[in-house]
Amino acid sequence: MSAFQEHAETLEKHEFMMGTARGRLAVSMDILTDALVLAGQHGVYMQTVTKGRSIPRDVQMMITGIEQAKELVYSVMEELKREKEASRPANS
Q: How many C-alpha atoms does 36 have within 13 Å on its Cβ side?
């Protein structure tokens, strides 16, 4: 199932409130956050199973990748917001 199908209701709501691009980015942030939580839970589970050793490198790489993706998505959302504000006519 595609992201557009699986998250259709949430996408519709966010796209209506924020516009297409920012709405899709907001939903992307939610999906990435959910994945980050699951990766973190897996890391905690792995520490428990391995008796306190550090999080496995693959899990740490996954967490880092998700955090970096969120950072990039957020920066695009902020840039779109700045562009929108700059294009508004000044109130006299």
A: 15
Single-letter residue type at 10? T
Total structural domains within the chain? 1
Q: Tell me whether residue 86 is in a domain.
A: no
| The model's pTM | 0.78
| Coil, strand or helix at 89 | coil
Task: Report yes or no on 84 lying in a domain.
Answer: no
Amino acid 89 reads: P
Residue 62 and residue 32 in contact, taking contact as beta carbons nearer than 8 Å: no
Encode pLDDT of 18-68 as tens digits: 999 999 999 999 999 999 998 888 878 877 777 767 777 888 888 899 999
Domain extent, residue 23, equals 3-78
